[in-house]
C-alpha cells in the first residue's frame, strides 16, 4: 500500500463516521474501566498490570479522538496515522481486559470481573 500524497484529503463525511466509531469505542472503554474501578473489592498487586494497560490504551484512544477533531485530520496522511494509533490503543485496551480476565479466571486477584 502506497503512502498518500501529503496534500491528499479525505471526505469530511468519511472522517466523521470514523470519529463517531472512535467515540463510541472510547465510551465503552471508559465505561469498562469505570465499572471495574468502582468494584467494592480490595485491590492487589496483580491488578496493576491490567490497569496500566487499560489506562495507556484509553490515553491513546483519547489522543486519537482529539486528533480526529482537529481541522488537519482531513489530510489523508494524518487520518491514516490516527487510524493506526487508534487500533494500537484498542489493542492495548483489549490486552488489559484479557489480562484482567485471566487473573480472574485463575483466581489471582481480588477484583472480580466475572462475579
Which helices and strands appear, and what pairs or packs with what?
Elements: H1 12-37, H2 48-69, H3 76-106
Helix pairs in contact: 1-2, 1-3, 2-3
Transmembrane segments: 20-39, 51-70, 85-106
Keywords: Membrane, Transmembrane, Transmembrane helix
Protein name: Integral membrane protein
Hey, roughly how much beta strand do the residues contain?
A: under 5%
Order of helices and strands: HHH
Q: Label the structural class.
A: mainly alpha
Tell the overall outline. elongated
In the predicted model, the low-confidence regions spanning at least 5 consecutive residues are none
Helix content: 55-70%
Give the end-to-end Cα distance, rounded to a whole number of Å: 46 Å
| Major sheet characteristics | none
Q: Which value, in Å, is the CA radius of gyration?
A: 17 Å
Q: What is the typical, i.e. mean, pLDDT?
A: 87
Number of beta strands: 0
What does this structure look like?
The structure is a single chain. The protein is mainly alpha-helical and 115 residues long. The chain has a domain at 47-114. It contains three helices and no strands. The protein has helices spanning 12-37, 48-69, 76-106. 21% of the residues are buried. The mean pLDDT is 87. Keywords: Membrane, Transmembrane, Transmembrane helix. This is Integral membrane protein. The chain crosses the membrane at residues 20-39, 51-70, 85-106.
Amino acid at each position: 500500500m502506497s503512502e498518500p500524497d501529503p496534500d491528499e484529503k479525505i471526505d469530511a463525511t468519511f472522517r466523521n463516521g470514523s470519529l463517531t466509531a472512535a467515540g463510541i469505542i472510547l465510551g465503552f472503554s471508559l465505561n469498562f474501566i469505570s465499572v471495574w474501578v468502582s468494584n467494592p473489592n480490595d485491590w492487589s498487586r496483580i491488578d496493576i498490570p491490567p490497569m496500566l494497560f487499560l489506562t495507556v490504551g484509553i490515553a491513546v484512544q483519547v489522543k486519537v479522538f482529539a486528533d480526529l477533531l482537529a481541522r488537519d485530520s482531513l489530510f489523508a496522511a494524518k487520518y491514516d496515522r490516527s487510524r493506526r494509533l487508534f487500533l494500537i490503543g484498542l489493542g492495548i485496551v483489549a490486552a488489559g481486559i484479557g489480562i484482567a480476565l485471566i487473573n480472574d479466571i485463575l483466581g489471582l486477584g481480588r477484583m472480580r470481573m466475572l462475579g
